[in-house]
Amino acid sequence: MNLPSPQALGEQHKNRGNDFLRQGRLADAAREYLRALECHPNHCAALSNLGIVLQAQGKLEEAADRFHQALAIDPNFTAALSNLSAVLHRLGRLPEAEFQVKKALALEPDFPDARSNLGNVYLARGRWAAAVEQYQYALRHKPDFPDALANLGVALQLQGKLTEAAACLEHALRLEPDSHEFWTNLGVVRHRQGNLEVALACLNHALQLKPNDPEALANHGCLLLELGQIPEAMARFDTALRIAPDLAEAHFAQSLALLLTGDFEAGWRKHEWRWRRSGFPGHGRPEPLWDGQPLDGRSILLHCEQGVGDSIQFIRFAREVKARGGYVVLKCPRALSRLFATVAGIDQSVIDEDPLPECACQAPLMSLPWLLGATHDTLSATIPYLTAPVPSPLPRSWIRAADNLRVGLVWRGNATFKEDFKRSMDPSFLAPLLELPGITFIDLQVAPRPGDREFLARYPNMLHAEGLLTDFADTAAVLMDLDLVISVDTSTLHLAGALGRPVWALLPFAPDWRWMLERNDSPWYPTMTLFRQRQRGDWQEVITRVKKQIEAMQTHRVQGCSIHHMATRS
Fold it and tell me: Of residues 91 and 563, which shows the higher confidence score?
């Protein structure tokens, strides 16, 4: 009787292992692959598939070792190269992961799994367009590829292409309806679309499939935060962090909840987790982070980090940094350079694209409240901390209009911001204001949407300043010419507050963390009044209250009272 060769026995055990792997019986699959390797130690497929099992069991270092063993036998084993890349990605070793998957693609350019894994690397590095390209390449060769479809949905969501993102995730769910990750990601997309009820159903379904999934718990907490259920949201974040103590998304979301409720000390500390979020661009500075201690003559680089509004809000802390005894260098965008030249405490200003002097340390602007120990009492101590460095570009004829109130308007934010749908409004909601007599309105809106100007053309008391605003120094000068600024949550709102101008903020039901809860004033800007939505999406009621306040202002103005002294309730 002829006994099977060791190679044949190894193949039999490997095939049984594959059957168990398809059934999700990981321990049984691992046992069969080990038996295959006892019979045939150089069985590349058994080594690679054992690595897949170990990866699924969370034993990432062991999985990487198995893939390396397979590649030592066959350096051109593309599946092992691709799988090794996926493990290195999960270990956070992104440059190595990219190197290995590109080796696989050099050997087999049309390998869908490798294309998808390269897309995952790009996604983790914040290169969303490059990730989309790789997922689409993979799907051309493997149309019903659930992971590529779902991750394409994530990448599209990050680009703001929400309808396309939802379609990809729904396709993925038709292929794998029990994937808690797919349901979680669809919930995130529906949340960003403002469809909170559907988002909540998606996330609840994800948690039914995997109750202790930390990412689903964190996203559920974000949604509860949006719904105004703060204690419930904090409980979700706490649960997620008990399961995954290093989950940056949960720490960061919790920081926003803490800041929203006024807990600055804990909120600023946790806000530093933003640097570890997936896809969050690092500040890219080689200098060591300042620790907040006295500088003793050393130079420090302050640099802008996120949006223009954030930079305007946090540049106030430059004065306190200077008080720690250093030489302060500011790196900022060209659009802010003339304006920020007016900030006290800055010794040298450099535009983003220009060479930088050597500095002993650095600090992103949004880390300064944490480094300096900012409290509610210190926020408004230096208002105004900006001044207009140039004359107003407004035609004098706009300013001389009899006794009219001069009111600046901004109704939309940056369309690329992922939550712009909450803060922006259609200009048609402004009609009750624009119909008021005795007011000259100055349109400060940058990049209006199609149809905005056509609607506003029917109001001759609306003058358009967009073409006169070359940078924020010009905008500051215009604001100094106005009696009042009314704006949704934009950089212009922050600028008016930083200049100490009378300004009214139009805020959504679930506001950004910096506007806190319930109050109608702001510790950041003492000349600002907050008008909050009382029901989600209801701008009409907000504008009704604003109209009443303007009418009261006109009455007080006739009686010789200053706008600064008006008592307002929102």
Answer: 91
